[in-house]
Recover the amino acids of this structure.
């Protein structure tokens, strides 16, 4: 049975990704920081749960110990915004804290997870990291971390390829049904984000999960080192 790890699988996109693999009958483990929410999600899904903050090296080492007999697919999904930017006149140390938090949550968490599990990652497997459309244009820690995640992925693909392990980034645009924006999404902003798409609709968590599921399948073994976008045309590539 394939063993799948989805970090941050207790809600939103990660939950939908875990659900897609559960549908295969896979052995799925989800992580998160809120124990109650994680336990409830695991019970609903039929997934194993490991309480682990992806930015905490001890917690990630403990997570890796659950996979001593191997892992086939790692989905680096945990991430999100880590606070509003400080005022421009704030002390430089405050700016440093703001940037460090964003980079830790969205870049370091993925790097730590793959580093801790590298020696048990099985041939024929996949690493899929959730990036963001924000990596294409926004000058903030979140988006910069997502851009760096894609750069890291390119090197990861090169190093894992000889073991027949693929590594890709799935970069969503605006996706409904998640807590990413908390209460911060206004009707005006939502309408503007939808207007930017070619299809004039908001993405769904299932849209992202379907691509992740495909990238981890036998049909996608020659796709590696890529960033694949799920954004309704809000950002286009050549
Ligand atoms: P949610 O806030 O709905 O879900 C985030 C999940 O990650 C939760 O399960 C959360 O659980 C967990 N999580 C967050 N930080 C950590 C951490 N440090 N360690 C372990 N678990 C963590 O957001 P989304 O589903 O929207 O986000 C999932 C991914 O998709 C993120 O990487 C996000 O950047 C990306 N994305 C989302 C978009 C959108 O429009 N929704 C657009 C582009 C990218 P807990 O809080 O309990 O830890």
């Amino acid at each position: 049975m394939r063993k799948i790890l989805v970090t941050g699988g207790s809600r939103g996109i990660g939950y939908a990704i875990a659900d897609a693999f559960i549908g295969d009958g896979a052995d799925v483990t989800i992580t998160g920081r809120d124990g109650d929410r994680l336990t409830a999600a695991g019970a609903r899904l039929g997934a194993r749960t490991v309480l682990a903050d992806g930015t905490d090296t001890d917690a990630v080492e403990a997570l890796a110990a659950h996979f001593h007999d191997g892992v086939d697919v790692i989905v680096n999904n945990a991430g999100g915004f880590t606070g509003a930017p400080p005022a421009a006149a704030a002390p430089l140390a405050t700016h440093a804290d703001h940037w460090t938090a964003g980079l830790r949550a969205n870049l370091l968490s993925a790097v730590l997870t793959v580093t801790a599990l590298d020696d048990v990652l099985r041939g024929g497997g996949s690493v899929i990291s959730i990036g963001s459309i924000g990596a294409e244009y926004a000058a903030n820690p979140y988006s910069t971390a997502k851009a760096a995640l894609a750069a890291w992925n390119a090197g990861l693909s090169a190093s894992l390829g000889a073991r027949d392990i693929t590594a890709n980034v799935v970069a969503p645009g605006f996706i409904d049904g998640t807590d990413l924006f908390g209460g911060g999404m206004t009707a005006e902003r939502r309408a503007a984000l939808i207007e930017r798409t070619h299809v004039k609709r908001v993405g769904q968590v299932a849209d992202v999960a379907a691509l992740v599921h495909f990238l981890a399948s036998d049909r996608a073994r020659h796709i590696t080192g890529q960033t694949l976008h799920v954004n309704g045309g809000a950002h286009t590539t050549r």
